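testing teh design pipeline on a random one, pls ignore if ur not involved
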């Protein structure tokens, strides 16, 4: 797998000579880099936004999906090496992507880590435990309401997207947190007020996973609250990233 295949850029970045913050975004299970196009548009004047494209979807559909979060993190670390612009690095992960971003943060020491809609790594993701087959998997995707229901009702489309979904759910279900070095950067934990997968008791332990400051931010909405509050979240990220460039 070529390192270049892992990262996508959708908008013109600030002048590279200014060494802007690089914000790397990690999508949810079954998601793709394109999910972050709206956020990238909002932040294009502030940072260089890169979105991770996992194999097995969209333009990488012909590649085998990876069903191990640690392996995903290692690939992203390698891909980021030649992509660095010399400026500060920040990571933003949504749902499964938050765990991948966290594992990357343990390896790269970014300036900021933003984790969205995800229990703390040491708690595990209990919502995937009852998923035994494709029917359960599709039902869970419908429950989260982050995927076009038309795609889930189209047998031809399901044939294309199910391999990646199976791999992603397996990666989350089998993820095991191991004690070790933790990110030393500030961590921002974002959740939706109606997201049953991230009640306060499963997200507050994110404070255990940084030696820096940890803050919590709640937005009205469910698991995919981000779609409804892109502007507000972009404002939060921009304000929080500003000190990182000083």
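output:
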């Amino acid at each position: 797998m070529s390192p270049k295949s892992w990262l996508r850029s959708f908008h013109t970045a600030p002048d590279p000579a200014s060494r802007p913050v690089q914000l790397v975004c990690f999508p949810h299970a079954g998601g793709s880099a394109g999910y972050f196009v709206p956020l990238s548009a909002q932040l294009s004047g502030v940072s260089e936004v890169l979105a991770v494209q996992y194999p097995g979807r969209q333009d990488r559909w012909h590649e085998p999906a990876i069903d191990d979060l640690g392996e995903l993190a290692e690939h992203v670390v390698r891909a980021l090496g030649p992509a660095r612009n010399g400026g500060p690095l920040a990571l933003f992960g949504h749902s499964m992507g938050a765990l991948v971003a966290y594992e990357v943060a343990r390896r790269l020491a970014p300036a900021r880590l933003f984790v969205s809609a995800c229990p703390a790594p040491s708690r595990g993701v209990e919502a995937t435990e009852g998923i035994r087959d494709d029917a359960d998997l599709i039902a869970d995707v419908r429950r989260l309401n982050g995927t076009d229901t038309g795609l889930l009702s189209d047998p031809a489309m399901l044939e294309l997207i199910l391999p990646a979904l199976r791999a992603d759910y397996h990666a989350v279900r089998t993820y095991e947190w191991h004690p070790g070095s933790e990110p030393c950067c500030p961590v921002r934990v974002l959740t939706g007020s109606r997201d049953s997968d991230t009640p306060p008791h499963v997200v507050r332990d994110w404070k255990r996973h940084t030696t820096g400051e940890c803050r919590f931010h709640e937005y009205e909405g469910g698991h995919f609250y981000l779609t409804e509050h892109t502007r507000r979240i972009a404002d939060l990220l921009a304000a929080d990233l500003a000190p990182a460039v000083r």
